Amino acid sequence: MATQAENIDRKLGEVVAELARAGRSAQRALAAMPSADKARALRLAAAALRDDADAILAANAIDIENGTSRGLGTAMIDRLRLDHDRLEGIACGVEAVADLPDPVGEIISSDERPNGLKLSRVRVPIGLIGIIYESRPNVTADAAALCVRVGNAALLRGGSEAVNSNRAIHAALVRGLAEAGVDPECVQLMPTQDREAVGAMLAATGQIDMIVPRGGKSLVARVQADARVPVLAHLDGICHTYVHSAADQAMAEELAVNAKMRRTGICGAMETLLIDSEYEYADDLVRKLVDSGCELRGDTRARALDPRVLPAERDDWDTEYLDAVLSVGMVDGIDEALAHISQHSSAHTDAIITDDVQVAERFLNGVDSAIVMHNASTQFADGAEFGLGAEIGIATGRLHARGPVALEGLTTYKWLVRGSGQARP
Question: What is the pLDDT of residues 329-386, one digit of tens each?
Fold first, then answer.
């Protein structure tokens, strides 16, 4: 006799299968739509977001109140919170995706074989994308817009802390899409907040084509460990900034404070600062960070720069704080900086601040992360800032896509072979 848990799993599996069938059917029609029609649909979806602003913000207020009563941290509440400016930013992001060139149909390469066969590789949609995310209601709109623009269907599963916001945003989006003739089942929201629904999505081999998780370490780790569907994700955002001995003082201080303190709860926030032992303004840099409200945890040499620096524990170098906390270490030159980053970076985003172009090039070529920067804040690790309109996530793996994943990262390709009667000998 089946246990209660097995019955629940079977029921949720049936729910996912039904949603997947509907999504895949709608996706086939969407993939056949002209690019201009998909762009028009997204502009109408953005207009619907603006029209429903009061309802969306009212729903978000309920989520904020519930989250506060549940004791959600400051960073989580910041991710969750919407206001008129943030909602306008979400609508503008959808419009920005509509304005981007559609990569579908792009000929990646072409060749003619000696036997006369003409080959080409052409970009096509992936199919049905499952997005599992926490706390950020803007992901509902970003993910939907990116998927629709390239002809993918989306099955969204947001976190319970943002359930009211996600439902309100989803309702507005599909109303706008339907007005343009897009089947609303191209963008579906899981109807349950049951945690086991995630497991049902991860097991949906042959139904969901790719899973994109966006959330905390425990969520992403579970998805990567349990998924039987291909996954595009990053686990941690342990981002480093290395202040080289030839760094400009004003630039180093401005970028370090910005990289850590602009928004501490995003994956592109700096979590470790490495200071060259030959950098003569190290004490000023540390003082600037502490005075900005950041707690510093440093090695022996970093602690000697300011009595307010706390001792760093071994785990600090491998911690994504997502808070106003920063690990600080002193290094003897670029080789030691590269070795530290190689050991502790999560391959998300790492930066160097220096006026020495040759050292900068060594850093750019020597750090094997998805994003490597010179004289810029790690907080620029964002699809919109890269001119991609929006992003569905940042990938730190080495297959298919790396860094901010936007339109191109949500496509695959197929081979087209044109012959004139060739038979293989």
Answer: 999 999 999 999 999 999 999 999 999 999 999 999 999 999 999 999 999 999 889 9
User: What is the separation of C-alpha 178 from the centre of its chain, rounded to a whole number of angstroms?
Assistant: 27
Helix count and strand count (H, E) for the chain:
14, 16
SS in 3 state form for 75-99?
Answer: HHHHHHCCCHHHHHHHHHHHHHHHH
Residue 181 CA: distances (Å) to CA of 20, 39, 69, 105, 135: 20, 12, 41, 21, 30
Largest Cα–Cα distance in the chain? Answer: 80
What CA–CA distance (Å, rounded) separates 207 from 204?
Answer: 5
- H or E element in which residue 40 lies: helix 35-51
Contact call for residues 245 and 334 (beta carbons, < 8 A)? no
Query: Distance between CA atoms of 365 and 285, rounded to whole angstroms?
Result: 26
Separation between Cα atoms, residue 192 and residue 195, nearest integer Å? 9
CATH topology of domain 4-234+397-417: Aldehyde Dehydrogenase; Chain A, domain 1 (3.40.605)
The DSSP bridge partners found for residue 110 are 120
- Locate the domains of the chain by residue range: 4-234+397-417, 239-380
Helix, strand or coil, per DSSP, at residue 156: strand
The residue type at 70: R
Token pair listed for 148: 């629709």
Residues 20 and 130: their CA atoms lie apart, in Å, by 9
Q: 239-380 architecture in CATH?
A: 3-Layer(aba) Sandwich (3.40)
Q: Looking up tokens 């991860």, which residue turns up?
A: 202
Q: Which token pair is 251?
A: 């630039």
Q: Cα–Cα distance between 238 and 222 in angstroms, integer?
A: 19
Grade residue 393 by pLDDT with cuts at 50, 70 and 90: confident
pTM confidence score:
0.84
Q: Which residue has the tokens 């069938």?
A: 21
